[in-house]
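User: I'll paste a sequence; please echo it back and then give the predicted structure.

Assistant: Echoing your sequence first, then the prediction.
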Amino acid sequence: MVDDSSEKAHYDDAASTGSSSSTSRPSTRGSTERTPTPSDIEKSPDIIFPTPAIEPTTTRSSTRSQHPDFEVDWAENDPGNPINWSSRYKATATALVAWSTLVVVVYSTSYTSGLYGMMKDFQIDSEPVVTLGITTYLVGLAIGSMFLAPLSEMYGRKPIYVIAMSLFTLLIIPCGLATSLPEVIVVRFIGSLAGASMIANSPGTVSDISTEKNRALFFSIWSIGPLNGPTFGPIIGGFATQYLGWRFTNWIVMMMAGTSVLAMILLSETYPPVLLQRKAANLRKDTGDERYWCRYDNRKQSFLQVLGVNLKRPFVMLFTEPICIFWDLYVSVIYGILYLCYVAYPIVFTEIRGWSLSFTGLSFTGIGIGCFITILCEPLIRRMIESHRKDLSTGKVPPEAMVSVICIAAVLCPVGEIWFAWTCLPPVHWSLPIVAGIPFGAGNTAVFIYAVNYLAHSYGIYAASALAGNSLIRSLCGGGLPLAGAKMYSTLNAHWAGTLLGLLQVSLIPIPVIFYKYGHKIRMKSALIQEMQRERERLEQKRVSRMEKADRERKEVETAMIKVESNRF
């Protein structure tokens, strides 16, 4: 089994933080006096008794030589813990990372509006060759995510955001000044490696600041960025290309990226392990006492070791975990067909209907409206999820409750696709294929949000690896399918090409339906999830044992103090 210490350490931290914690522990245990025993009190009635500290939760990275009284941890309602930040600041932080993620995704699809302009300027006849700019960009996002995620575990999320988004912004300049298509493709690929910082780490930022109760709401707010970015891209690119030329699309995105760099500078660090390390370091500096420590100080893993875990485990899970196999397949196909639309819409509205680039960009508004409808319905969706029977062992609804939403979305996606396929060509009025984007966009958004949540809830401490594998396969499929778009639509025509895609989505409907009905049994047969449950039980037993021990010590001390007081009289 791959070393899981980094993810388990983060899980231990999450289990012991926040105002909802079942134990209240002081933020530091800095007394230089040892805790007196009952015999000490009897010998010295005037001794000053400090309340005995509860034994801290430590991970395998902690050493035996570190004194538990000097462990630095979160106190209850500690303002330094991101979980306890004000709702206003949490909303601001979510908006900042959502905006920056939107900028990265906008750059992926704004490119499609300039395809014909680049073909003309660079004297290229093959549309699939120019479309490679989308494919390589999405591949870069997938590869970059695998490297930037472990870096954020070592140095925190903020420095990775600031450095990576600064590079992303600067690398837009060569694209705008490029003299050949290979320059554009190569520089966009390198830029996407940096932009992947938002794709890889912004969900972690949202998770850092949200509780289990409001996590779905915060993720819905954040998803406005990555899910609407593909829609806004062609709109921005369409108007810019028509009136200013395809190169100006780069300058608009660069200005947007500049604001995202400023947003990341203003964002506070949210990664709990890094914040605890800083807190311990500040206490050592302020007091001059080197005994202050936190559970993450002695993590011995180098970047290469952390990278090895992040690269190996997602692939192991992808090929050995049935949940990952089927959900990665389902989500990647849905995501790939979504990106294929950004090739299909220009074919239908620009080439066939004769629309201008700017109005072709506006044809994506139906998908954007559908996305917003799903996000605005989050309170109703949450109520539907919570109406499911609760799991007796946890007191909460099982993860399969979220799959009920995906079952509905799994129908909306092909309905929108087939609707579009048979209304997109004249003489059918242009409004009908645009309206078809509403159920299509709503379904795609629901699949993205709740499939990610299902994987995260199913795998707990291994969620990062499950989501990393899902992101990789999704991005590869999203980058690969658009390459076939032009050829497929010219060979089959728009009616049958769209129908084929819709039927492909219909053929995958059994995946969410089966997991909704039998997902619990499938999860219980997962070796990884069984290991996770054993780990959770071990932590709970350790916590209960720690509380019982502390309670016994308090009772012994109280009994001794009562005995001393009675001897005085």
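The chain has two domains: 86-281, 313-525. Residues 1-64 have pLDDT under 50 and may be disordered.
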